[in-house]
Amino acid sequence: MNAEGAGPGSRLEVVSTVEALRARLRGEASVVLVPTMGNLHAGHLALVAEARRHGSCVVASIFVNRLQFEPGGDFDRYPRTLERDCELLAAAGCHVVFAPGESELYPEPQEIRLAPPKAAEQLCGEFRPGHFEGVVTVVAKLFNIVAPHTAVFGRKDYQQLFVIRTLVRQMNYPVRIVGVDTVREPDGLAMSSRNGYLSSEERTKAVRLGRELRAVKAAIESGRRDHEALCEIATANLTAAGWRVDYVALRNQSGLAVPGPADRDLVVLGAAWLGRTRLIDNLEIRA
Questions:
Q1: Topology of the domain covering 2-180
Q2: 44 catalytic, yes or no?
Q3: Residue 44 three-state SS
Q4: pLDDT, tens digit, for every residue of 236-278?
């Protein structure tokens, strides 16, 4: 399967097997990986644009990874939009799409799984048991298959980015990790494949999560240090507006730990539900 794109005179190549991908990438001087689960939006295309700055061959993977969905999660209803995704990737200048089936990436039960770091046990990890184990396992497999020198991830999944950086550092992968700033809708909502689950009424309300995080950020940058109280206020405001809040929390950027008096580089993170849809967002803070 080919599609026009990836620069003048070139075509996007779509491969579905490990063998075919390795054959295609053999001899490439600089491969950059953009892992995705598909159902792409402008945020993903920003990752591809950044990837083009770091290498001559951009590979986007499209794979809905069952291992990172908690029991009762939205694995079955997660949109599969491969044809549209490939059209978008071609226009964005991607060179290769790796779109394996589940039996290709997991040809037998994946009994060997990687354990994520302790930082993964809090925040989203507390509410999505097994999620980060699934993330680090599939990312490790993709690194082994693609052998990129650089991989690009979005900062919207801030904890995920932290976990992947730790994976690379502790497992000695020769891969540079590049984080790309969150891409937002004109009203400030962080772009997410799950935004498509929102009803029109929920979509109007969805901007409230980012608004509450911005209020925490503004308060801290103005000198307030009652971090816990600020997060409690944001949680109460979201709850009163009809959200079911998993957490609003402040952490340091260096270790995703509760900030100490000397910490200045911070991040406020939030995860909350509107109806059946779980949204996340974060903002970095210089205190």
A1: Rossmann fold (3.40.50)
A2: yes
A3: helix
A4: 999 999 999 999 999 999 999 999 999 999 999 999 999 999 9
Cβ atoms of residues 62 and 99 within 8 Å: yes
User: For residue range 148-167, what is the model confidence (pLDDT) as tens digits?
Assistant: 999 999 999 999 999 999 99
pLDDT of residue 2: 57
For the question of whether the overall pTM of this predicted structure is more than 0.85, the answer is yes
Q: Which of 44, 95, 131, 227 is catalytic?
A: 44
CA distance 19 to 206: 43
Range list for CATH 3.40.50.620 in the chain: 2-180
Distances in Å between the Cα of 34 and the Cα atoms of 43, 97, 201, 230 are 12, 9, 33, 35
Name the H helices within the chain: 18-25, 42-51, 82-92, 102-105, 124-127, 131-146, 158-171, 200-205, 207-221, 227-240
What does the pLDDT read at residue 163? 98
| Mean pLDDT, residues 47-73 | 95
How far, CA to CA in Å, does 164 sit from each of 39, 55, 135?
A: 22, 20, 8
Name the token pair of 67.
Answer: 């291992």
Q: How many CB atoms lie within 10 A of CB 76?
A: 8
The CATH code of the domain at 193-282 is 3.30.1300.10
Q: Taking Cα atoms as reference points, which of 255, 258, 261 lies closest to residue 247?
A: 258
| Burial bucket for residue 262 (CB in 10 Å: 0-12, 13-18, 19+) | exposed
